[in-house]
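From the shared-data thread, chain only:
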Amino acid sequence: MSTDMKAYTDMLKDLKAAPPIMGGAPYTWGPIPADAPKGKQVLRGICRSCMQGDCTTKVFLEDGIVVKIEGDPDMPPNWGTLCPRGNAEIMNIYNPHRIKSPLIRTNPDKSLEADPGWKEVSWEEAIRVTVEGLRAIREKDPRGLILAEGWGNRDTILRKAWGEAFGTPNESGSHGAGCVVHYATGIVQASWPVAIVDLEYCRYHITLGRTIGPNFATTSGTRKFAKAIANGMKLVVVDPRSSYEAAKGEWVPIRPGTDLAFLLGLAHVMMHEGLQRDEWFLKNRTNAPYLIGKNGHYLRDPETKKPMLWDPAENRAKPYSAGFSDIALEGEFEVDGVKYPTAYTLIKEEFKKYTPEWVEEKTTVPAATTRRIAREFVNHACIGETIVIDGFTFPFRPVSINVERNVVNHRGGTYADLVSKIINMMVGAIEVPGGCLSNGFRGPVLLPAEDGTVRPGNVGVPFPWSWPPVHANGLEFFPHGYTSAHVTVQAIENPKLLHLPYEIEGWFNVGANHIRHVAQPKAFIKAISKMKFSVSIAYHMDEPTWLCDVILPEHCALERQRVALFYPQHQSTSHEVSGLQMVKIREPVPHVFNTWHVDDILQELADRLGFLTGKGGLYDVMNNATDYCIQEDGLNLNGPHKLPLDKRLTMEEIYDRQLRGWKYGGGKGWEDLKKEGAFMTWKGVSTFYNYMYVPDTQTRHPFYFHTLMEVGEQLRGNLKKHKISFPGVSDDEYIFDMYKPIPHWVLNSEADGPEKGYDLWAMNWKTPYLSSDTANVIGNPWLAEIYTADPYIAVICLNAQTAAKKGIKDGDLIEVESRYGKIDGRARVTELFHPDAVGIGGSSGLGTAGANPLMRMGPNFNTLLPIDIQTIDGLSGGHEVAPAVRIRKK
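Structure, as tokens:
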């Protein structure tokens, strides 16, 4: 369903009179517990209203009622500032559209329009029915359960371990299928989840397919961005849309889905048009000088088996670990009668064809613009300069080029990310001040593997092959894949597609919304509806919850007691938080409905199902888990602080053990944190730069992606061994073309759109209020008063020139159709989009008959997206996010 902006505004007037989600009785506020403190009170909080979700807050109450939320002026990362999302969290607790009590479905007809006939039940009955349904699945085959997770709940610490203890390998995220941005950073920088720009020192930044500040941690992110601009950083935004960031820099419009061509063109100019390069970095801190055989593999020393480089002083090849007075970066050298080129030589030769004129044909970016940007990037790189921070001398490279989801989520998108790394490496701007940094792990993560190159991290490490396959998301076939929910939905319909020896019969939803946030919502509606048993731990009546058999209502964020780490900033960084190690508390406000904390629910279910304690149980898995983002710096259970395996603990007791084992906590525990509000330590700014831990010639970043080729060869061998072809494609080479050690131009699945009558490309972007749906920001009426004033939200944006050709005027109702689905909405005619682009922002549309009406407004972009394996990136498994479309006036 789509609605124009006036309908949005009209909805706001009627929200207070909106019908309840159950029962038909008039809405009444839930009772404040009798023991709620009287008078005025201030609690310490953690905002969870964006993906970063770590701004510290003060929550003001009067007689147990929340009356105001502010940023905490004494606490990082926001230092007292708070964006409207955080202020509006009041409406999360006093929300008439919340689920207020456990519910059980009485109508077996499952659709978004049908009335489920919800029956309000006690917690005891709801838990009993849930346990019976989950036990039946577990006894038959625990792999038959999908544990669906997403940004709707950022406060559980048990969910992942719960799934492992249950016995399912099938945790499916609704947040990553359209954002498979992790591989290149994992292989080049050994980190997770993405690479970011060092806004403290950067002076020239090129950004593609991503935001820098405003759409995530709005207060701190925007502040850092504004500071960088004020300090003279030039920003180049290459995007089909003129974004907030573009308004503060240079906008370079580009045809949707063609970013790989532009990046290849920049690399061409840097390699072939006489620009300066960081010779020392390329020779001594990358594998660019490694000698390569005709089979694409390293030439290795016969004795040590180490890769060989050419020593021009001694006129011979030597292992990389030998001493060198100089190293040959370019050329072809004879060893035992065979000529071997350097990796740099091969890459330079491949990139020779990608001239700026070629780029202009593919992308519409003028050739002169590509050349100018490449030259400006190099000229700002300060090659050869150093900077001293905390007494340590670093290379100083104040330039960075970074890409994200709208670049990576195409066939060949991973190559685009890898080319961006090559561009940064050409000037030595990797993991040094001013340059391209990883935003996750800190420490000696850049230590080399046996071939001298950085040991890959996270999704850079291939997932092991197993036969028969275990995972419904196809990890055996996409060993560098991420969530791949769009593959899972196909496996639910047809397990034989992935050669699975079991069927999916259960769906357990914890903060996930695959229907709204992945692709092809009808496919997920069908998949969830066919489950023999489904349950949702839910805050509001979102799409998957509406389809479930049992609903277990959870606290809202303000009501959830929580201990949380500060994670490194997700989109950018500055010295406001560099070197910060922090753990903080959220003190819960009194809950107003018959809801439970998500982790209390998970403990209760595990206990009744018999896997809470004991070997292999939930606590045992928790003891062996490592925080996914911080590794040894996380709230991990270790040594004497491990959970006992013979008794049930309260969440406070679990928090206490986590805190006492925290590396920087000095042995303090739960009671200490309640008194202090946070534990903080500052390691020093220099510790934020991973170069410091592994400096000089101690490691090499992969410039030539040898391990990628090796993984492809292993995958090819496994397919051959089991006499199968790659699932879902007509030709295996379509996949293995993504496993070459040198990135190259490939056509994405939508490049042939104009030939098939689809002459435009749809594109999407995150917005401050329709992003990820953390804390149900879409349904928040206070925020709706702001976002309904945005003329580019809940509409379909067209370039004025394109609209004129199509006979479309501003405000016309139009239809957008891809080869995979169609949507309709009001046209917004503007000059802020590329002529070939159809822009649809945020994540809106769909909704249910029992949901907040705001959830049903606007066109659902994801309806246009494909899920077929033939259309996705064969390396990462990411689905296409810029489908070819055609439009017409309705």
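Residues 5-89 form a domain with the N-terminal domain of TfIIb fold (CATH 2.20.25.90).
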